[in-house]
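Appendix B, Record 12. Input sequence as logged:
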Amino acid sequence: MSRYLHGLRILATSCLGLLPAISFGQTFATDFEQLLTTGKLTAAIDLAAARVKDAPEDAQARFSEGIAEFLFAVEGLGQGLHRYGLRNSYDNEMLGFINLPFLRLPVPENPTPEEVTYDGLRQVLAQFHDRLAIAEATLAQVPDQQIDLPLHLMEIRLDLNSDGLASADESIGGALYRIAVGQSPTADDQIGTREILAIDFDQSDVPWLRGYCHLLMAMADLPLAYDWHRAFDLTFHNLFPKSHLASHELAEQSTLAFEYLRTAPKYFDYPEFNWDFLPDEGSMAFSKRWNAYKQGRDTAKAAWDKSPAAKAYAAAQGRIRQMTDALWMGGIADSIAFIHVLDWPVVQPDRMKEARQHLLQMISLSRENWRRIKAETDDKVEWLPGPKQTSLMENLRVTASRVQGWGIFLDEFEAVLNGKKLIPHWRVATKRRGINLRRLFDEPAALDLVLLLQGSAALPYLEDGETVQTSTVDTVFNLMGSGLIGYFFWFN
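Logged structural output:
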């Protein structure tokens, strides 16, 4: 009995000895999240760095430092684009050009921006790249240990307009809402519940975030490798409408068209109908409700047809159509012009080599990410779950077949980047002949998209060898299912 009590004393003493460390870890995580959700990223970096200095093997603190540095890089990109007055409201797709990489960041409107310059915009990209490198270097030092870092992801805020105040509009949730809905969220708009959005980031998310750093650095290296000054001067006018680029007058005309449409007479506003079955409502009751709605709608429309508003709309209809067509066709014309001037000389060839290495690192880290995910036995609120874990993304389910498809994609992509497999060109009839992508990265020439597609610019990179097979591509698509692009940016 005395031995039993002695054993209990030892166990109790050991557990009590752990309590301060556990309490400190919980306090650190709470303080760290508080800084992130109030937009104090530099303070969050300092807090994590101080903890790492005191405890270099603290994986949670080192991971936290890398997360804050990654967010700091994104914040810096947003601040740079805001400083130059980037226009990217997601309710004006008529302008086109919204989908250019890095220009989808929904920064707040800047009423008095600085004049954007080609060199200034390149510097914004270069700074983003360099800050990502700092974050990746920190994440590379995270020990392979158990990590449990709960963060309310959608509540994290970035000071995108450099005013020292990170508002709700500048939260990750607010940014995603603007991208999805096309406007800033109101106080009544809820993006899930706080409990659901408290994601438990763990050790498997470390290689995931490292891989994302490499992906974004590769994406930044590509434009920095080339001189796209002419495309900037002639086609970026609607992205930075308050700067006086060579094509600035086109942006002024777009602004006038938007202003006219904003104040122009509006067409009849049809009332909405609730298509959902109401509680205990049968098909007959639903049909009766629909008929009542339709009758009321038609009566209201007939009354509107006789109103002054209808006459005003009819009188302005030609002008409305003209302005709408000008905006839609203008956006298309700008995209065509961008492709037309996409003949960019190489100015920093080493960046192309670095971009390929970043993509290879991304592939390696994605494999490590999935190795760790498959080893997990818990089912917490995962950022990237395994097939046996619960997914937060209702429209993107992680299944065993999708993980298998992703593995095949990584193998093929790696083989292509290393030149072990060639990319077929549609004009090349010879079997086992295609483009060596490795040489395109390591021996870059002027980038001319049209001539690459036409074939002339591809000729120097054509080689004999094994090519990517259509059957392999079909297998990946079949295993991944719909939403392949979404899975790519989620899985990286």
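Residues 232-269+287-341 form one domain.
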